[in-house]
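Hi F.,

I've been meaning to write this up properly since the lab meeting, where we talked about keeping a consistent format for the predictions we share between groups. The idea is simple: the sequence comes first, exactly as it goes in, then the structure tokens exactly as they come out, then a line or two of notes. No screenshots and no reformatting. I'm using this chain as the first example so we have something concrete to point to.
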Amino acid sequence: MMIIMRESATDNDIDHLIEKVKEVGVDVHVSKGAFATVIGLVGDTIKARDLPLATFPGVERVVPILKPFKLVGREFHPSDSIVDVRGVKVGGNNFTVMAGPCSVESRDVYLDIAKFVAKTGAQILRGGAFKPRSSPYSFQGLGEEGLKIMAEARDVTGLPIVTEVMDARDVDLVVEYADILQIGARNMQNFTLLKYVGQANKPVMIKRGLSSTIEEFLMAAEYVVSGGNNDVILCERGIRTFETYTRNTLDLSCVPIVKKLSHLPIIVDPSHGVGRWDIVEPMSIASVAVGAHGLMIEVHPNPEEALSDGYESLKYDNFETLMKNVKQAVRVFGKGM
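Output, unedited:
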């Protein structure tokens, strides 16, 4: 349920309504816009059905929300949300590129990659300190040492860093270092983890699950926002289908659908989406065309020596070409970069 206040509503009107709603055991989420305040009722809203909400001072109208996702939906928050990551704006009319290796392998290699992608125009550094792998014998990441290397790269380049947190027990540790907490595809429905990052004072990026629907994707974001963290970025990274020529099937239709349903920014990870370096660039251009707010690209100087996902990582010269063409596409479609 959503309560839209009149433009003339006073702070006392708003506070009075919130107080009465909370008295019956219903939580509220307040969104203040330029012309009106919207109050979303969260949880078991049936408890508030006996309140004459439409007659409260300052109330313009009461609107039921039928979709299961409330706080991340357009009904509650009609305008686009923009997530500020240490001065880098994600969402709205901004186009943001996150780039770096799949894994932080060593200090020297990571710093070299960080300096290159920064010079080439990336605005955020990516890298995995903790790596979820299909095989228990594969490289699992450097852990806290990897986080320290990423923090050093941020100091050297000035770029914010995004890295994955895999376990609720690691949230506090990763928060110490990261600027964006990434929820990986395999953890999209790890509801305990989502609740923990919902309480963190850091932006969260949620990758779409391997076989999840768009509604499930948005409900994962709802977990985080309902916990009090409004700074959420969505990431389409492909879904598992019967196709074998690509690692996943990159569902670019997800982008305009999510933008219609939700106010949250959505970026695309074509590297994981296709799993082939040779088609990352065309899928990146296509992501711009369908309205994505940014990209997440894997870059490595020697992909054949990478400890993870080398087959989908771009070499330096290929990333440089991609950035040149993406910037042209961004200008064509009227965004800023």
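Notes:
The mean pLDDT is 92.
The longest helix spans residues 316-332.

If this format works for you, I'll send the rest the same way.

G.
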